[in-house]
């Protein structure tokens, strides 16, 4: 099973936020990511986990 990886721009588009906010989430370790060379990537699984966690926090 392979997990798709997304660019910062793709994550920003999916969440409807700026690239800079995605970088803030990465810097604060709220959104796990990794680098391939100089390129930052986020797995779809990490994005799904982040969205689920935020949804649970807002519901509480």
Strand content: 15-25%
What is the residue-mean pLDDT, rounded to a whole number? 95
Radius of gyration: 12 Å
Total helices: the number is 3
Q: Which fold name fills CATH's third level, the topology?
A: Multidrug-efflux Transporter Regulator, Chain: A, Domain 2
Q: Give the helix proportion (percent range).
A: 55-70%
Order of helical and strand elements: EHHEEH
Taking the sheet with the most strands, its summary is: 3 strands, antiparallel
Which parts are unreliable, with pLDDT below 50 for 5 consecutive residues or more? none
Please give the CATH class: Mainly Alpha
Can you walk me through this structure?
It is a single chain. With 60 residues, the chain is α+β, with helices and mostly antiparallel strands. It has a single domain (5-59), classed as Orthogonal Bundle (Multidrug-efflux Transporter Regulator, Chain: A, Domain 2), CATH 1.10.1660. The protein has helices spanning 8-15, 19-27, 44-59, and strands at residues 5-7, 34-36, 39-43. The protein has a three-stranded antiparallel β-sheet with strand order 1-3-2. Residues 5-51 form the Helix-turn-helix domain. InterPro entries: DNA-bd_dom_put_sf, HTH_17, SinI_DNA-bd. GO terms for molecular function: DNA binding.
């Amino acid at each position: 099973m392979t997990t798709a990886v997304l660019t910062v721009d793709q994550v920003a588009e999916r969440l409807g936020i700026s690239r800079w906010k995605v970088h803030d989430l990465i810097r604060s370790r709220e959104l796990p990511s990794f680098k391939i060379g100089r390129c930052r990537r986020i797995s779809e699984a990490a994005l799904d986990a982040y969205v689920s966690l935020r949804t649970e926090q807002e519901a509480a």
